[in-house]
Amino acid sequence: MANLFESLKNLLAAAATNPIENLQAAVERIILYSRYFLVVICIGLAFALGIYAIAFIFEVVHVAELAPSHANQWRVQPGDAHPRTH
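Below the sequence we write its predicted structure tokens.
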């Protein structure tokens, strides 16, 4: 038990004498614990990307359904100066 108190006393004495090490330890802790914040951000971004992917698939299906009905509008015949618009 005395050994524990002695090591704690030495640790506190060393911490008080070197403020740069205190700053370094604080920065290390901030970097270490910031990974949990980044996990939340990455999960949110993945969720948003999934929503955008689903919306994109719906839009592709919508355009694919409209394409056959408008195919003749966009066809250019030989001799036409301009494509038909209606």
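The chain has two helices and no strands.
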